[in-house]
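Posting for a labmate who doesn't have an account.
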Amino acid sequence: MAPYRRRKRRRLYRRAADWILRYKGTPHQVALGFAVGLFVALTPTVGIQMALGALIAHLLKANRALPVALAWISNPFTMGPLYYFNYRVGLLFVPGDESAGRALIDSISGASLADPGTWWEAIKLMASEAWGVAGVLWLGSIIVASIAAVITYPVVLRMVIAGRAKLTEVSGMPSLPPERLQRRR
């Protein structure tokens, strides 16, 4: 990778980290918002992920901006591999036919806008296989999303607490109020 691209990527990561560290709310609210956003992003709720993440974050009194931003983890480029992985995880817990899920994914990705017949075939296959595939997919997605959220919360919490303490130390600004530095009880 070219040094320019590496620098550009590091700058992007640094900006994202700064935005998270400086965002309003306690570290608990920020970490919980991050975990909620990751959970929702890893479930097959495309189309309503941003609204669903913001609603869950609001109900849990967490940061509402992070779930909206993290909903973009599952986008048209990542949905296929992400959902196929989740489907495979679901197959570990529920007996199912792997070929049905693969055929469904292939038919959807192979459908062409120029040929309505391919869409009709994909729709028929989805109707016949949807319930079995969807159940396995949802189970796998819930398992993967739960594990990711449980791991993410303490990691982000510690990062935000340490990052905010370092920000106050480096900037020479007066220390943030204790409620902004510590986890809310």
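Reply:
Got it, the structure tokens are right above this. The chain has a mean pLDDT of 79.
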